[in-house]
Amino acid sequence: MTRYYIKQERQKQVRQNGFSCLYAPVVAKKTGACYPCGQGGGTMEDREILAGSVLFRGLEPEEVVPLLGGRREEYPANRVVIQEGERVDRLEVLLSGAMRAVRLDADGSEFLYQQLFPGYLVAGEVACTPRRTSPYSVCTLERCTTWSVPVDRLSDPALPAELRLALLGNLLHFVSNQNIRKYYKIDALSVKSARQRILKYLTAQAGRSGSTTFTIPFDREAMANYLCLNRSVLSHTLKELEGEGVLTFRKNRFTLFPEKLSGQHIG
User: Fold this and answer.
1) Biggest alpha carbon distance in the chain?
2) pTM, rounded to two decimals
3) CATH second-level architecture of 43-185?
4) Where are the domains of the chain?
5) pLDDT tens sequence across 112-133
6) Whole-angstrom distance, CA of residue 4 vs CA of residue 1
């Protein structure tokens, strides 16, 4: 898996070069094939994904993509797409596959920020900052395709003013959503006990889905990583909560029971 490969590379670089290498690119370079996006925004599947992306909210990709240009890129599984410390000058919409945004510590251990699925903007908030320097790495979990365009293209005076305003407004919407996601994570990590942390995260996910039955974007290992918990502690606590009738789960699908939650101290 990508995270283990990067961990080994980080540990090797620390041994050889000291801690200064932590902000240098890892050895695993991205190896993506790229080619111009066809007229009308690529294939039908591509257009459907782009239409569902926040960047194209309220817009028609088959009309906008030819004006923006951009290109479609392919990445193999287990590759680094964006390296920690790399400058991000492009907006990249994930069309297929899955990616992970991670931060690596000095010992090579991984801190999971977010898992990305089709329709997500890859490091879009980084491209909106003045320095555009990524504080994390983005890695593919499987074969991925993306559509990308230079971020400065969105403010190009050659584009119709109405389109520029719509795209920049959508980008602001995306950045705002990212801030809310980070708030939910900080809120979950603000409590000390594993039980409270798990329940805070799951109740937030239930609220976002609008249902007490919902699916989270993580497997058990990724969920433990995201909540900064040991995997065995996470599994043990989930089984305890299930035994108490607070929730049921199968893989990454959960059901919460509000009448039982009311007696829990979530924090």
Assistant:
1) 62
2) 0.75
3) Sandwich (2.60)
4) 43-185, 192-260
5) 999 999 999 999 999 999 999 9
6) 6
